[in-house]
Amino acid sequence: MVVTNMSKRRNYIPNIKEIREDGYLGVDFYLSKSCNKSCHYCTAWTLEMRYLHVDMEFLVRTLDGFEGHKVNVNLLGGEPGLIKNLKEVITKIKEYDNIKLSVLSNSLIRKFHPYVLEDPEIYYVEHLVLDFHEDKIEKLGNHDFFELNDMNNYNLIIKTPGYFAHRDSHNLSQIDHDNTLLKEFNSRSPDWTETSQAPEFNRRMCAAFPKVPVVDFEIQKIRHCSKKVINGSKIFDVTFENVQKMMNFELFGFESYCNKCTEHIEERPHEQILKIMEAGAVL
Q: What whole-number distance in Å separates Cα of residue 99 and Cα of residue 97?
C-alpha cells in the first residue's frame, strides 16, 4: 500500500516544542511530594513516603474540567515513579483527546515504569542531573543522556552556575540536540543570586496563567504558582467552574509574591496575550 503524505501527517506525533507552539497550556499535576532524592533547588519534595496512590475520582474530576481546552498535563511531584497506580493514571489521561501527557522524572521511571519511555505519545522528560561541577556531572541516576530520538524522550538540563563553568572546559555535545530542554536556574534555590526582575507587565501576564499552575493531589487543590509550593501560593477548589476559569485566564490574579518574583518569564504567544488582556487579568 502506498503511504501518502496525508496519511503520514495524520500519524505524525508532534514534539514537545510543537505542542507548546500549538497553544497547549501546561498544568503540573503534583501527584505526591514524596521523592527518593532531595534536590536543593526543588520546591516540592519530602523523603517521607506519603500519598503514593492517586485518587482516581479526583483525577477524573480534574480532567473533566479541561473540557474544550488544549492542555499539556505534566505528571511530577515529588517523583512520579513512586506512584503505585501510575499506569492507571496514565491510561485514564490518554482517554482525553484534548490532553497531551508529559512525565517528569529523576530517572526512577526507567526502573518502575519503563513503558513510559517506549510510548512516543508520552513526553518523557528526565531531570537526571543534580548539578555540574568543574570535573564531573553529578547525576541522580546511573543512566546515559538521551541521544537525538523520535520517541519524545528528553533530557532536562537546569542551567545552574556549575553548568556554565563545566561547559567552558568540557565537551557537552552529547546533550546539544533537539531532545535536550534547557531551563533557567530556579529562583527558589537557596544560593540564588539573581535580583533583576521581568517588567511588571510580564509578571502580570505570568500571574494570569503562571508557568505553571499546579493541581496539588495531596491537598486536592489548585495552586496558583509552582514556585511557591513550599512557602505557600494562593489555592482554589478543584471544581469544573474553577478549572474552566483557570484555562480562560480568569481564575488567577497578580499576588503579593508576584511583586518579588525573579523567575525567568518566557514570552507568551500573541494569541494568549490577547486572551489574557480580554479577560481583564492584566489590569
A: 6
Q: Give Cα 220 to chain centroid, integer Å.
A: 18
Q: Is the Cα dihedral 92, 97, 98, 100 positive or negative?
A: positive
Q: How far apart are CA 116 and CA 6, in angstroms?
A: 28
Ranges of beta strands (E only) in the chain are: 25-32, 71-77, 99-105, 122-126, 129-132, 137-139, 153-159, 180-184, 214-216, 221-223, 235-237
The model's pLDDT over 232-273, given as tens digits with 9 standing for 90+, comes to 899 999 999 999 999 999 999 999 999 888 887 878 888 889
The 10 Å CB-count burial string (b at 16+, else e) for 176-193 is eeebbbeeebbbbbeeee
The answer to the question of residue 283 being in a domain is: no
Instruction: Pull the grid cell for residue 250.
Output: 480568569
E-strand ranges in 91-246 read 99-105, 122-126, 129-132, 137-139, 153-159, 180-184, 214-216, 221-223, 235-237
Per-residue confidence band for 62, with pLDDT thresholds at 50, 70 and 90 = very high
Q: How far apart are CA 272 and CA 23, in angstroms?
A: 8
By residue range, what is the domain housing residue 211? 14-278
Q: What tens digit of pLDDT does each residue of 190-217 get?
A: 555 666 788 999 999 999 999 889 999 9
Question: The domain spanning residue 81 has which CATH number?
Answer: 3.20.20
Nine-digit cell string for 197: 526582575
- Cα three-residue angle 194-195-198, rounded to 5 degrees: 100
Quick check: is 160 in a domain? yes
Is 31 inside any structural domain? yes
The DSSP bridge pattern shows strands 99-105 and 122-126 to be parallel
- Indicate the number of domains in the chain: 1
